[in-house]
Amino acid sequence: MCGKFAAGHLTQCQMREILEGFLYANVSQDELAIESKQGYNISPSDQAHMVRWTEEGFELTSAQWQISDPRQQKPMINSKIEKPYFWKDYWDHGRCVIPALGYYEWSGITGRKHPYFITVNRNAPVVFFAGFYRTSDNRHQCSILTCKPSSQIEYIHNRMPVILSPSEIEDWLAYVTSKEDAKDTLGTSWDGRFQVTPVKPIKPGCDGPEMVEKWKPKQSSFDF
To answer: First and final CA of the chain: distance in angstroms?
Structure first.
């Protein structure tokens, strides 16, 4: 977790307006940012919307979803909240949020796992994953912070992304939230408000709002 998420079709301007409503502050737009991928099938290495804090304030930019840390042989798309020692530099200088509609997770017997679309009941048009970012050669890369799942969805997978509540976004971005507080409370206010939808098997090239619509496979046989 998390290996794929839905972003929808919000433009940079629309996303900026939403963010300013949450942060009660101006959000600058990175005019040099690489265009973010839109749609319902955001995968590792895709370019995604990202928000960070700079010396000038909050900035909406984009980042490739995977961090190529020199300490690891393979790029990392997720970062565990329980390992602050490994992510220390990111906790101190590389926090970000990644806007999304929700994420996909698979559950079931190996070889026959079924996908689910998971989000939270809310009034806002998007949710915000807590994340870390790294800048190399003037390009950003990001990972999604993960934690143990809410008891409501632990039957699906043993990890979930940290989904920030509206009141947590500013403190997370501005480095106010401590490692200790984050581990215990970050994202926990959504407990009991998760929305889980079984969806169609996700094939290469799939995209569109039908990816997050409820789906039930046709019954092909009967058990006696």
So the answer is: 36
The answer to whether the pTM exceeds 0.90 is yes
**What's the CA gap between 28 and 34, in Å, rounded?**
15
Encoded tokens for 152? 């409501």
The domain locations on the chain are 5-212
Q: Per residue in 111-166, pLDDT tens?
A: 678 999 999 999 999 999 999 999 988 899 999 999 999 999 999 999 999 999 99
218 sits in the region (left: phi over 0; alpha: psi -120 to 50; else beta) called beta
CB-based burial label for 104 (10 Å; 0-12, 13-18, 19+): buried
Any idea which fold 5-212 has? hypothetical protein yedk fold (3.90.1680)
pLDDT single digits (tens) 30-58: 999 999 999 999 999 999 999 999 999 99
CA 69 from centre of chain:
19
